[in-house]
Specification:
The chain contains seven helices and ten strands. It is of the alpha/beta class and about 240 residues long. The protein has a single domain, classed as Rossmann fold (3-Layer(aba) Sandwich), CATH 3.40.50. Bound molecules: 2-phosphoglycolic acid.
């Protein structure tokens, strides 16, 4: 595991974008696993700028997102479809991009469809991840077991509260989501985990504590190629 320390959010964002950009330059037909949340927004801004400047071309690449809320139409400003268009897809030129359909009539069938997409185009070359205050990656919430495949998840109260800041009315935060499972994340060739302000303690637990489904990100200790970019102060790492 490699940990890159960044003095501030801009530096974290630039470093993350450089690593994603390098992946595209080295393998133009990469499959990128992408994440939402406030942390990757700056990296997406740099990637959009570098594409506009003619330095990055995504036309042979595809993206597969981690997750989507259930029940929000794609046009809802808090849906992850909308987020990805706003922060990246409207500004760059991926050949194709997939996200789970959170308004599918049959959500279990949608989980199976998404798993087939991952199998068809995976393994993911570079998986970008944030980390939740409770240690979730994607919407793999703390649990008594890891879930391998794409699945329907009931969001934890802490996650609902953390995401309520984005909604006019906290009551509107969806209670359910579809998330990529742990297997696709572990099978990604490289993982890039971003952890900004407020994530120091959970990052320390995930990287140096026991591997447990109660801290889903702790499973990354088993992945052979993880790079962490963080504004946290230096921490000693067990692996
Ligand atoms: P954040 O969310 O980037 O908005 O902090 C990360 C996450 O919950 O995975």
């Amino acid at each position: 595991m490699k940990i890159l320390y960044a003095p501030d959010y801009e530096s974290l964002s630039r470093k993350a974008a450089m690593l994603i950009g390098a992946q595209i330059l080295q393998k133009p037909c990469s499959v990128l696993g992408l994440a939402t949340g406030s942390t990757p927004i700056g990296a997406y801004r740099y990637l959009s700028q570098w594409h506009a400047a003619g330095d990055l071309d995504f036309s042979q690449a595809r993206s597969i997102n981690l997750d989507e809320y259930c029940g929000l139409p794609d046009s809802h400003p808090q849906s992850y479809h909308y987020f990805m268009r706003q922060h990246l897809f409207d500004h760059v030129n991926f050949a194709a991009s997939d996200l789970p359909e959170g308004c599918a009539e049959d959500l279990q069938a949608e989980c199976r469809r998404y798993e087939q997409i991952i199998s068809a185009y995976g393994p993911i070359d570079l998986q970008l991840l944030g980390i939740g205050h409770n240690g979730h990656i994607g919407f793999n919430e703390p649990s008594d077991h890891f879930v391998a495949q794409t699945h329907l998840v009931r969001l934890k109260e802490q996650t609902i509260q953390a995401n309520a800041r984005f909604f006019d009315d906290p009551g509107q935060v969806p209670r359910q989501a579809i998330t990529m499972g742990i297997a696709a994340i572990l099978q990604a060739k490289k993982v890039l985990l971003l952890a900004g302000e407020g994530k120091e303690e959970i990052l320390r637990q995930a990287l140096t504590g026991p591997i447990t489904p109660q801290v889903p990100a702790s499973i990354l200790q088993l992945h052979p190629d993880v790079t962490v970019v963080t504004t946290a102060k230096e921490m000693s790492c067990s692996r």
